[in-house]
Amino acid sequence: MNSQLQVRRAYEKFLTFAGASKLVLLHPASRFRSLAVALLLADTRRKTYYYALDIDDINLFHFLTGLINGLAKQHASFGRHLNVLPQNVLQDPYRHVDLVLKTFLDELADFGDGDFILLLDEFDRADPADDIHRFVERLSHLAPERCTIVLNGRSLPRLPWLSMMAKRHAVILRDDELIQKDFYGKRNAKDASLKVLSLGPGYVFMDDRLVDNWEGHLPRLLLFFVMDRPEVTRNQICEVFWPDLHIDQAVNVFHVTKRRLHKALGVDILSHDGTYYRINPDVPFYFDAFEFVESLLLCRHGDLPDAFQHWQNVAKLYRGPFLQGHSDGWIEERRQAYSVANTESLTQIADNWSARGNDELALLTLGKAIDADYSIEATHLKLLRLYVRLGRRAEAVAHYRDLEKWAKGKRRKLGVETRRLFTEITA
After folding, report:
1. What are the beta bridge partners of residue 173?
2. Helix (H) or strand (E) segment spanning residue 174
3. Among candidates 225, 232, 224, which has minimal Cα distance to 203?
């Protein structure tokens, strides 16, 4: 295959996923990253707003300043919301990140109708900037559906890719290939002596022995936190675990926690290159979240002769909410993402049972999906339609009334399709 055709295939693959994801990463190992960016900027079929990070973008303040100046040249009104924020907010945007994010979303809302791409090039220049990474991570979740953020750079950004992919918020592309395994360049070894199970209460096994000598819960949670990303900085860890401590105190507590982690496992599990911490590449491990996301992507995008069996494997891997029993902010974020993916697997299994003529098992499976996450209205709609098809209208009405009561308590309005179906049921 000639290089021109390869580039075209890679670009078309990119367009396919850009229309369905909140964030697309052009993998640093991609051969055609620069060509894909050039094609995107030359493509008149879609609107792209482009910003290449500067060497001075060492923190969120400089990043936002450069971004405002860069995008204002492409959209004249960009910055009109951000620039009127109070001076103390503009000078220290990360301290007021919730307000800055809300205001940034107001800027994106002014981009007119239709889908658009926000392309952040040379993103590796933000490698040392924890606040830029966190801002982009949160922006990718909050950005409007018609916005796709594209990251291009020479390194893998320090984002929680596993949970973002589980929630369908992110994909990683290497030319025309969707990355579906070894996401961080690490192989997930089922026969490894270290097994880390995060879906459920959170168990760690070393040589088939349950590790329970943690000397507190923080060493254990530190292991899960570092497992979750390609790499992390010490400041990232301190901000998440000890946000109320002065940085010097937080660093001291971190080193104590790290020593306890190594003592519990009997191995130096965290390696440090002077800047970043990561799981020691010389220690083979198995992390259930890796297999869960790998299986999800295989089901979503693989050419499977028996998808039903693979969806069942996804549901089997989900032993319970992520680190069940803990309520830390970063844990809640991951938990919500994996819960959405679990509900997806259960609804796919229910659809398969219906297609096989076993509606009772389909009903049972949809019930499990609703118990796992009551807030997903699409699952309730599937259940209501199945009740109607089976002629069980009384049960459909009762379920709708329960859903209506729940929505009222949450101050939510049920969707048009759900309300229309209820009208048909009671007509």
Report:
1. 26, 178
2. strand 170-174
3. 224
- Nearest Cα neighbor of 422 from 392, 386, 390, 385 is 385
Backbone angles phi, psi at 207, to 5 degrees: 55, 45
In DSSP notation, 129-172 reads: -HHHHHHHHHHHHHS-TTEEEEEE-SS---S-HHHHHHTTSEEE
Residue 238: alpha-carbon gap to chain centroid: 22
Tokens of 378: 């699409």
Burial code (b: 16+ CB inside 10 Å, e: under 16) for 75-101 equals beebbebbeeeeeeebeebbebbeebb
Using only C-alpha atoms, the chain has a radius of gyration, in whole angstroms, of 23
pTM greater than 0.90: yes
Mean predicted lDDT score pLDDT of the chain: 93
List the one residue out of 237, 284, 288, 293 whose CA is nearest residue 265: 284
Is the model's pLDDT at 153 over the cut of 90?
yes
pLDDT digits (tens, 9 = 90+) for 198-255: 999 999 999 999 999 999 999 999 999 999 999 999 999 999 999 999 999 999 999 9
Amino acid found at 376: I
Element (H, E) at 350: helix 329-355
CB 188 within 8 A of CB 290: yes
Sheet strands (E) in 37-104: 47-52
Q: d(Cα 110, Cα 84) in Å, to the nearest integer?
A: 16
* Helical packing angle, 359-372 and 377-389, nearest 10°: 160
* Non-local CB neighbours of 376 within 8 Å, separated by 6+ positions: 340, 343, 369, 370
CA distances from 188 to 25, 141, 194, 283, 294 (A): 21, 27, 11, 11, 10
